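pinned: reference chain
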Amino acid sequence: MRTTPDTPSPQSPYARRRAALQAAAVSEQPLLWYGFVLGAVAGGMVPGAPPLSRAAGELLNGGAALEGRLVAALTTLALEAEEALRRDDDEELLGLPPATADAGARLTALSELCHGLCLALGLKQDGAMRQDRARDELLRDLSAFTRVDPEAELDEDDLKTVTHYISDRLRSLNLDPPTLS
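pinned: its C-alpha coordinates
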Protein backbone atom coordinates (compact mmCIF):
# COMPACT_ATOMS: atom_id res chain seq x y z
CA MET A 1 0.00 0.00 0.00
CA ARG A 2 1.35 3.42 -0.96
CA THR A 3 1.08 6.26 1.52
CA THR A 4 0.59 9.95 1.02
CA PRO A 5 1.91 12.76 3.24
CA ASP A 6 -1.36 12.36 5.17
CA THR A 7 -0.60 8.72 5.99
CA PRO A 8 3.18 8.49 6.45
CA SER A 9 5.01 5.60 8.04
CA PRO A 10 4.60 6.06 11.81
CA GLN A 11 8.31 5.53 12.46
CA SER A 12 9.69 7.81 9.76
CA PRO A 13 11.48 11.06 10.64
CA TYR A 14 8.90 12.80 8.45
CA ALA A 15 6.00 11.38 10.46
CA ARG A 16 7.59 12.29 13.82
CA ARG A 17 8.31 15.87 12.77
CA ARG A 18 4.97 16.34 11.09
CA ALA A 19 3.18 15.11 14.22
CA ALA A 20 5.23 17.42 16.46
CA LEU A 21 4.41 20.43 14.30
CA GLN A 22 0.73 19.50 14.01
CA ALA A 23 0.54 19.29 17.82
CA ALA A 24 1.91 22.85 17.86
CA ALA A 25 -0.77 24.05 15.38
CA VAL A 26 1.30 23.91 12.19
CA SER A 27 -0.96 22.06 9.79
CA GLU A 28 0.58 23.00 6.44
CA GLN A 29 4.05 22.67 4.97
CA PRO A 30 5.78 20.91 7.87
CA LEU A 31 8.99 20.55 5.89
CA LEU A 32 9.13 24.30 5.26
CA TRP A 33 9.21 24.76 9.04
CA TYR A 34 11.64 21.90 9.61
CA GLY A 35 13.87 23.09 6.75
CA PHE A 36 13.97 26.51 8.37
CA VAL A 37 14.96 25.02 11.72
CA LEU A 38 17.56 22.73 10.12
CA GLY A 39 19.05 25.59 8.12
CA ALA A 40 19.13 27.85 11.17
CA VAL A 41 20.98 25.24 13.22
CA ALA A 42 23.37 24.42 10.37
CA GLY A 43 23.95 28.17 10.07
CA GLY A 44 24.94 28.50 13.71
CA MET A 45 21.78 29.45 15.56
CA VAL A 46 21.44 27.90 18.99
CA PRO A 47 18.42 25.64 19.58
CA GLY A 48 16.01 27.30 22.01
CA ALA A 49 17.67 30.71 21.78
CA PRO A 50 15.45 33.75 21.12
CA PRO A 51 16.94 34.58 17.68
CA LEU A 52 15.66 31.28 16.25
CA SER A 53 12.10 31.79 17.52
CA ARG A 54 12.13 35.44 16.52
CA ALA A 55 13.28 34.66 12.97
CA ALA A 56 10.71 31.85 12.63
CA GLY A 57 7.97 34.23 13.75
CA GLU A 58 9.05 36.91 11.32
CA LEU A 59 9.49 34.65 8.30
CA LEU A 60 7.03 31.79 8.80
CA ASN A 61 4.33 33.19 11.08
CA GLY A 62 3.42 36.45 9.37
CA GLY A 63 5.65 38.49 11.64
CA ALA A 64 3.78 37.38 14.76
CA ALA A 65 5.47 35.99 17.85
CA LEU A 66 5.25 32.23 18.18
CA GLU A 67 3.05 30.56 20.81
CA GLY A 68 4.84 28.68 23.57
CA ARG A 69 3.94 25.24 22.27
CA LEU A 70 5.34 26.12 18.84
CA VAL A 71 8.54 27.49 20.37
CA ALA A 72 8.84 24.23 22.31
CA ALA A 73 8.27 22.13 19.17
CA LEU A 74 10.83 24.14 17.18
CA THR A 75 13.35 23.84 20.01
CA THR A 76 12.90 20.07 20.06
CA LEU A 77 13.26 19.92 16.27
CA ALA A 78 16.36 22.12 16.47
CA LEU A 79 17.96 19.82 19.04
CA GLU A 80 17.14 16.83 16.79
CA ALA A 81 18.62 18.68 13.79
CA GLU A 82 21.76 19.49 15.74
CA GLU A 83 22.20 15.81 16.59
CA ALA A 84 21.33 14.67 13.04
CA LEU A 85 23.99 16.99 11.60
CA ARG A 86 26.58 14.94 13.51
CA ARG A 87 25.45 11.61 12.03
CA ASP A 88 25.76 10.21 8.52
CA ASP A 89 22.07 9.49 7.95
CA ASP A 90 20.53 11.60 5.18
CA GLU A 91 17.02 10.26 5.80
CA GLU A 92 17.12 11.25 9.47
CA LEU A 93 18.68 14.64 8.73
CA LEU A 94 16.32 15.76 5.97
CA GLY A 95 13.21 13.87 7.02
CA LEU A 96 11.51 13.58 3.65
CA PRO A 97 8.48 11.31 3.31
CA PRO A 98 9.45 7.65 2.93
CA ALA A 99 9.86 5.95 -0.44
CA THR A 100 6.42 4.39 -0.02
CA ALA A 101 4.79 7.85 -0.26
CA ASP A 102 3.41 9.31 -3.49
CA ALA A 103 6.16 10.63 -5.80
CA GLY A 104 4.50 14.03 -6.18
CA ALA A 105 4.21 14.40 -2.43
CA ARG A 106 7.88 13.55 -2.01
CA LEU A 107 8.91 16.11 -4.61
CA THR A 108 6.67 18.75 -3.00
CA ALA A 109 8.24 17.94 0.37
CA LEU A 110 11.74 18.36 -1.12
CA SER A 111 10.69 21.75 -2.49
CA GLU A 112 9.31 22.85 0.90
CA LEU A 113 12.40 21.63 2.75
CA CYS A 114 14.69 23.55 0.38
CA HIS A 115 12.57 26.69 0.71
CA GLY A 116 12.92 26.57 4.50
CA LEU A 117 16.65 25.95 4.21
CA CYS A 118 16.99 28.96 1.90
CA LEU A 119 15.15 31.22 4.33
CA ALA A 120 17.33 30.22 7.27
CA LEU A 121 20.71 30.00 5.57
CA GLY A 122 20.33 33.53 4.23
CA LEU A 123 20.08 34.94 7.74
CA LYS A 124 22.50 35.93 10.41
CA GLN A 125 21.42 35.93 14.03
CA ASP A 126 20.74 39.67 13.82
CA GLY A 127 18.67 39.19 10.64
CA ALA A 128 21.30 40.50 8.22
CA MET A 129 22.25 38.57 5.10
CA ARG A 130 25.39 36.46 5.35
CA GLN A 131 28.10 36.52 2.69
CA ASP A 132 30.05 33.35 1.91
CA ARG A 133 30.87 31.75 -1.44
CA ALA A 134 30.07 28.16 -0.41
CA ARG A 135 26.83 29.25 1.23
CA ASP A 136 25.86 31.32 -1.80
CA GLU A 137 26.42 28.30 -4.07
CA LEU A 138 24.33 26.12 -1.77
CA LEU A 139 21.58 28.75 -1.67
CA ARG A 140 21.49 28.87 -5.48
CA ASP A 141 21.19 25.10 -5.66
CA LEU A 142 18.53 24.96 -2.94
CA SER A 143 16.61 27.69 -4.74
CA ALA A 144 16.64 25.58 -7.90
CA PHE A 145 15.39 22.57 -5.92
CA THR A 146 12.43 24.63 -4.65
CA ARG A 147 11.21 24.77 -8.24
CA VAL A 148 11.05 21.00 -8.72
CA ASP A 149 7.96 19.91 -10.63
CA PRO A 150 5.82 17.65 -8.40
CA GLU A 151 4.27 16.17 -11.55
CA ALA A 152 7.66 15.08 -12.89
CA GLU A 153 8.75 11.48 -13.01
CA LEU A 154 10.64 10.67 -9.81
CA ASP A 155 13.97 8.96 -10.34
CA GLU A 156 14.99 7.47 -6.98
CA ASP A 157 18.70 7.62 -7.85
CA ASP A 158 18.43 11.32 -8.73
CA LEU A 159 16.55 12.04 -5.50
CA LYS A 160 19.16 10.15 -3.52
CA THR A 161 21.93 12.17 -5.20
CA VAL A 162 20.16 15.45 -4.42
CA THR A 163 19.45 14.56 -0.80
CA HIS A 164 23.02 13.35 -0.29
CA TYR A 165 24.35 16.59 -1.78
CA ILE A 166 22.13 18.72 0.49
CA SER A 167 23.08 16.69 3.56
CA ASP A 168 26.80 16.85 2.82
CA ARG A 169 26.70 20.58 2.21
CA LEU A 170 24.77 21.25 5.40
CA ARG A 171 27.23 19.17 7.41
CA SER A 172 30.21 20.93 5.88
CA LEU A 173 29.05 24.51 6.39
CA ASN A 174 31.76 26.42 8.16
CA LEU A 175 29.89 29.38 9.55
CA ASP A 176 30.78 31.97 12.12
CA PRO A 177 29.88 30.94 15.65
CA PRO A 178 26.51 32.31 16.72
CA THR A 179 26.20 35.53 18.63
CA LEU A 180 23.10 36.01 20.65
CA SER A 181 21.48 39.40 20.80
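why pinned: Confidence is low (pLDDT under 50) at residues 174-181. Residues 103-121 form the longest helix (19 residues).
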